[in-house]
Specification:
Chain lengths: ~120, ~110
Amino acid sequence: DAGVIQSPRHEVTEMGQEVTLRCKPISGHNSLFWYRQTMMRGLELLIYFNNNVPIDDSGMPEDRFSAKMPNASFSTLKIQPSEPRDSAVYFCASSFLTGQGRTEAFFGQGTRLTVV
Amino acid sequence: AQSVTQLDSQVPVFEEAPVELRCNYSSSVSVYLFWYVQYPNQGLQLLLKYLSGSTLVKGINGFEAEFNKSQTSFHLRKPSVHISDTAEYFCAVRFQGAQKLVFGQGTRLTINP
């Protein structure tokens, strides 16, 4: 398996523009997580899905952020409009979760977003 | 409250010296514990995990960690570090019945020659 695949690896955009980050989870995994990493705040969980359904989006910073998972093999994180403070590395991770939660998450390589 | 704390934000050590990176958690339920490593400009890679059984777990690259339930700790150790171990290390906890991983703030390990 190729692992969790994120695209693009790097994105530079101007303030006010729409940005879409993409993620393909590991085949067979039933949960998908979006994290944001910054120097100031470390790793923050933005939202996670189980069986394509958003379970907890309490980490999404504001209405400018939205995430979708239309099927088991694809998810997007959209920022509209983007702001300089959104500059960060965004990670997608997937996992196969049982009721006990005894499994780890597998991370993609991340998307480094710079908003100028 | 359920939380994870990594007590050291940075740990500098000399090459071939031993190292311990500390992780403590707070929980009223059972936990599953993980250590991840992040090399520069890379994603997070699993080093090791504790799910049940023996409290001493061995991972990749010569790392090991010990689960101490009474002290609610899961410290990461390596007897002799190499320059290539320079990275950021994250402790993570999944609380029983929960779906999300909760991460500590990370510890940056710097190896000096």
